[in-house]
Amino acid sequence: MSPMVAQKMTLDVRTGSLILFPSWLYHSVDDNRSSTERVSVAFNVMFSPYVEDMSPPNWKGNLEISGA
Questions:
Q1: Separation in Å, CA 17 to CA 1, 13, 22, 35, 59
Q2: Is the pLDDT of residue 35 over 90?
Q3: 3-state secondary structure string across 24-51
Q4: pLDDT at position 57
Q5: pLDDT of 16 above 60
Q6: pTM
Q7: Residue 11's closest CA among 24, 25, 50?
Q8: 20, 32, 34, 53: which could join 38 in a potential S-S bond, CB 3.0 to 4.6 Å?
Q9: What span, in angstroms and rounded, lies between the C-alpha atoms of 30 and 66?
């Protein structure tokens, strides 16, 4: 299955890893079952104009909504 259509994705991380994703993306972290402390840091960042410069759509064309 392609990661582009997957229902779930699991990432293997190591100490010092930084994972960035959009705030609207549902996410979770498994319970820490080890005896060592885990530290999580969360923050928000906004790149302006993000959509136009960093995340343009992968398609070209016109979106037409009928009956709207």
A1: 25, 6, 17, 19, 32
A2: yes
A3: CCCCCCCCCCCCCCCCCCCCCCCCCCHH
A4: 67
A5: yes
A6: 0.43
A7: 25
A8: 32
A9: 43
